[in-house]
Amino acid sequence: MAKHNPFAVFRRNQKASLAILTLFTMFSFILLGTMFQCLQVRHTGVQQGRLVYAKTKKYGELDQPNFMFFRDDLRRVSAFLEGAATKLMQEKEVFPSYDGSLFVREKDPKDSSKEFPVPLTHLVSLFRELQYAQGSSENIVNRWLVYNTALSRGFKSDEEAVRQYLSLLFMDRLTKEDLDYACSVAGIRNYAQLYDLFNAQIICERFMRSVATPRGFSGFYEQTMPSGQGNLISAPSENFDAFRKLNQKMKVEVAAYTADSFAKEIQEPSESELKEFYEKYKYVRYNPVSKDPGFHMPNRHSFQIVRGDLTKERLDAVSDAEIKAYYEKNRGEFKKPVPQAAPGAANVPGALQLPGADSSSINVIPENILSDVKLPASPKEEVKKDEKKPESKPANTNSPEKEKKEPAKDAPKSSMNENSSPFRLVAYEAEKTADKTAAPKKEEAKPAAKPVEAKKEEAKPAAKPVEVKKEEAKPAAAPAVKADDGYFSLKEVESEIRRKLASEKLEKEMGEIFTEMEEYSRVLSNVRANVSSKESLKKISLKDLAAKHGFSYQETMETVNGEEVPRLLFPEEAFLLKVLPEDLLQQVYSGSTLDFSPQKTELIGESVYVYWSNAAKSENLPEFEEAKPFVLKTWKKLEGFKLAKEAAEALADRARTEKKDLADAVKAESKPVDFAKTQNFTWYDFPMGPQVSRLSVGEIREEGVALGTAESQNKVVKFPGDEFYETAFEMKPKEIAVVPNMSEDRVFVIQMLEKDPADLLLTLFDSANPQEFYQVLEQSSMIKNISFYEDLVKELQAEAGFEWVVMPGEVKQ
User: Fold this and answer.
1) Closest CA to 324 of 334, 309, 314, 310
2) Long-range pairs, 407-415, Cβ under 8 A, ≥24
C-alpha cells in the first residue's frame, strides 16, 4: 500500500475539496462556454451554430436556412414555368422565336382560316424577372426584403389570384397534364405548395406595382400582373416615340471632364473617415460601370481569343465539284419530308406518364382547370363552335381516352370540395360536361383515324408523278444522279452544302490551333505547379497562328512598369468590350475562378472561337489595409466628380451666354477637358438586323472609330449610359446639355449638331413594322425598372434598419 493514499487525503479534507471542485465547475461552465462562443462567432456571423446573413430592426434576421428556403422557392417557380412552357411547346401550343420570345397561335376573328402569333408577354417578362432575382446572393436577399415589406403593408394573394395569374401567363393553354408535369419537373409536391409559391410572387408584384405607379413608372412589374390584357397596350404617340428611338439618327459634339483630373484639388480624408467609408460599402459588389462604390471584388479574367469567321472568301473557296460530290454521297440528307396527316384525334398524343409524379401527392384536377378565366378576344369558344375547323383543337383535346375517363371520375365531385380541384372552379358544371361534351367527342374521335389511313393510301400513287418527272428530267440530269421528286435538287441545296463544307474546313483549322493551345496550357500548368521546369515551356504565339490561318486575334493585356501583363477584366468590362459572345462569358465568369482551360466552340452565327482565360483572380473581400489604396481612389473619384460637374455646368453656361459653338468654348477653357465629335447614332439598334439579333442600345462611335469597337476605341465618350441617350433624344440642333456618364467618373457637355427631322420620320412611320414598337417599349421599360428597383431597395433597407452581417458565400470557417 502506498504511503500517501490520495483517497485518504480526500476523505480527511472532504468539505474543502468539494468546495474547490464546485467553484472550478462553475468557472469552467461560465468562462469556457463564453470562450468557445467567442471563438465560434468572431468574423463569421455564426451565433451558437446559427449562420446569419443580414439583420433588420423591423423584420428580424435572415439566417442561412431561411435564405436557402427563399432561394429554392424562386428556383422552383422558374422550373415550374420552364416545365410548363416546354410541355406546351411539345404539344405545339407554344412556339419560340429567334430572340427567345414565346408565342401562341390565335385564329383571326375576321377570318377563321388565318392565324396570327400572339406573344406571351407576361410569361417572358416573368422569366427575366426571376432570372434577375436569382442572379446573385445579394439579389435574393433584396427579394426577401421586398417580400417582407409587402407583407407588413398588408398585401395579400389567394387561390383565385393564382388561377388568374397562370391563365394570363399561358393564355389559357394549361391542362391538368401540363400542370402536373410542370409540378413534377419543379419538385412541387402538391397544389398547396404551388399556391404558396405563386402567392409569394403575386404579393411581391402587387407591392412593386403600388410603389411604381405613383412615381410615373409603367413597365416590367405592371405588365406581369393579371390585368386581363394579352398584349402590351401602347398609345400611338408611344409607338411613334419607339419608332424614333430606332430610326432617328443624330450627331453630337462632346466635351468631357474626368473626376481624376481634379484629384489634386481634393483634401485627403482622415484614417477614421476612410475606414468608415470602407465599412459602409465593403459588402457591395464592385461594378466598374456603376456610380455606386463597392469593395467586394467579383471574379476577374484575362483572355486570349482566336476567332475564325465564315467569310465570303471561305464560302467561295468551296468548289462546285466538292458540292456535287457531297450531294451524291449524302443524298439521303436531302429527302423531302413526307406530307403529314391532317390534324385530328389520331395525331393527338396519348396520356403522358409524368416523371416522378405521384398521383397520391397531387390533387385531382378537372381537365379544364382554367376554362372559366378566358382572356378577352380569345377565340377558343368560337373554334369549339366551328366544327368545320378541327385543326385548331389538337393540342388541347389531348386524347379521347382522357375525355372518357375524366367525366366519370370527376362529375360526382363538388366544385367546392378541396380534393376535387386545386383551383376550386365555381362554374365546373360536371353534369353538363358529361352529357353535352363527352358524348359528341366520342363520335368525332372515331372517324379521325380514317383520314390517316386515306393519306397512307394517297401516298402510294405518288410514284406516278415521279415517273413523269423522270422522263422530263432525263435530258438534263447527269448520268450519276437520277432525278427524283422525293429529293431536293442540287440547285436547291447548293448554298446549304457550300456553307456546311466551308464550316467543316473552318472548324478543322480552328481545331489545329485548339490542339496547340491545349498542349501549351498543359505544359504551363505543370510549370506553375513546379512539376516541370520553365525551360520545358516552349511558348507558342497564338497571334502568329491566327495570322497564319487568316483568323482574327485578341488578347486583354496592359502595360505595367513598361511590361506587358494580362489585364484582368471585371464581368461588366468583358461584356461591354464584347471579347466573347454573351453566353460564353457567362460560362467563364460563373464557372471556375482558376485559369480557364482552352475551349473551342462550334459555329456560333458566322464564327468559331478558340479561347482561354490565361490569368484569373477569384472573387474576394479584401481587408481594409489591403483595400486601402482602392478605397482612397474611390473616395477621390466621388469628390472629383462633384468638381467635374461644376466645371461642366460652367462651360455649358458660358457657351449658351456667349452663343458659341461647344468646340469654340472648349478652346477658351483653362481646365483640362477632352473633346470629340461622334458619327451618326440612334438610341436603339438591331446590330445584325431585326431577324437575327435582339434589340440593344445604339453604338456611339467617335469620328474614326470602326463599327463594333466604340467601347475599346473611344477616347472621350466612355460608358455614356441611358441618361446620355435620353437627353440627346430630346435635344434640338445647336442645343447644349450636361449629363454624367454611367459610372459617374466623368461629366459630358454635349451639343446637338444635326438630327433627322420629325416630318421625315412620320413619313417612314406609316410603313413600319409594329412588332418593333413592342421590343423598344419593353427594352425601355426594363432599363427604367432596373434603375427604379435599385433605388427602391436602398429606401427599403433604410426603412427596415437593414444591416449586412456577412455576405452569403463569404463565411470564414
Assistant:
1) 334
2) 407/433, 407/434, 407/437, 407/438, 408/434, 409/364, 410/364, 410/366
Alpha-helical (H) ranges within 28-186 are 33-41, 64-90, 121-133, 137-152, 159-169, 176-186
Q: Which residues of the chain have pLDDT under 50?
A: 1-11, 21, 24-48, 214-232, 340-483, 689-693, 811-813
Predicted pLDDT of residue 194: 94
- Say what the alpha-carbon torsion angle 768, 772, 774, 776 is, to the nearest 10 degrees: -120
Q: Are 576 and 557 in contact (CB under 8 A)?
A: no
Q: Which three cell numbers stand for residue 682?
A: 440612334
CA angle 304, 308, 310 (to 5 degrees): 160
Q: Are 229 and 377 in contact (CB under 8 A)?
A: no
Give me the pLDDT at residue 101, please.
74
Would you state the cell numbers that stand for residue 651, as one nine-digit string? 462651360
Quote the CA–CA distance of 813 and 808 in Å, as a whole number.
13
What DSSP state is assigned to residue 286?
A: P
Beta strands in 217-371 (DSSP E): 250-258, 300-309
**What gap in Å lies between CA 657 and CA 15, rounded to an integer?**
99
**Longest alpha-carbon distance in the chain:** 128
Assess contact for 745 and 260: CB atoms under 8 A: yes
Cell of 433: 360536361
Kindly state the cell numbers that stand for 796.
427599403
Q: What does R_g of the chain's alpha carbons equal in angstroms?
A: 34
**Chain length of the chain:** 813
Cell numbers of 68, please? 436557402
260: which residues sit within 8 A by CB, 6+ positions away? Answer: 636, 637, 640, 745
Give the C-alpha separation, 754 to 219, whole Å.
31
Q: What are 620-625's contacts with CB under 8 Å, separation 24+?
A: 620/296, 620/297, 621/282, 621/283, 621/295, 621/296, 621/297, 621/807, 621/810, 622/295, 622/297, 624/275, 624/278
Instruction: Give the Cα separation of 170 and 178 in Å (integer).
Output: 11
CA–CA distances in Å: residue 647 to residues 258, 358, 533, 738? 10, 70, 57, 10
How much is the pLDDT for 538?
66
Report how far residue 578's alpha carbon sits from residue 707's, in angstroms, rounded to the nearest whole number.
12
Contact between 552 and 309 under an 8 Å Cβ cutoff? The reply is yes
Other CB atoms within 10 Å distance of the CB of residue 156: 11
Contacts for 221 with CB less than 8 Å, ≥ 6 apart: 129, 205, 208, 209, 212, 785
What distance in Å separates the CA atoms of residue 200 and residue 374, rounded to the nearest whole number? Answer: 24
Strand spans (E) along 247-337: 250-258, 300-309
Task: State the cell numbers at 242.
Answer: 419607339
**Rounded distance between C-alpha atoms, residue 709 and residue 667, angstroms:** 28
Relative orientation angle of helices 770-800 and 121-133, to the nearest 10 degrees: 40
Strands 102-107 and 94-96: antiparallel
Q: Whose CA is closest to 690, among 92, 247, 251, 127?
A: 247
Q: What's the Cα-to-Cα distance from 4 to each of 1, 8, 9, 10, 430, rounded to whole Å?
A: 9, 8, 8, 11, 96
pLDDT value at residue 553:
92
The sign of the CA dihedral 74, 76, 82, 85 is negative
- 3-class DSSP state for residue 570? coil
Q: Which residues contact 409 (CB under 8 A, 6 or more apart)?
A: 364
Q: What is the distance between the alpha carbons of residues 348 and 7, in angstroms, rounded to a whole number?
A: 91
Read out DSSP for 614-625? EEEE--B---HH
Q: Distance (Å, rounded) from C-alpha 555 to C-alpha 306?
A: 9
**Amino acid 193: pLDDT:** 93
pLDDT of residue 213: 54
H or E element at residue 22: helix 14-27
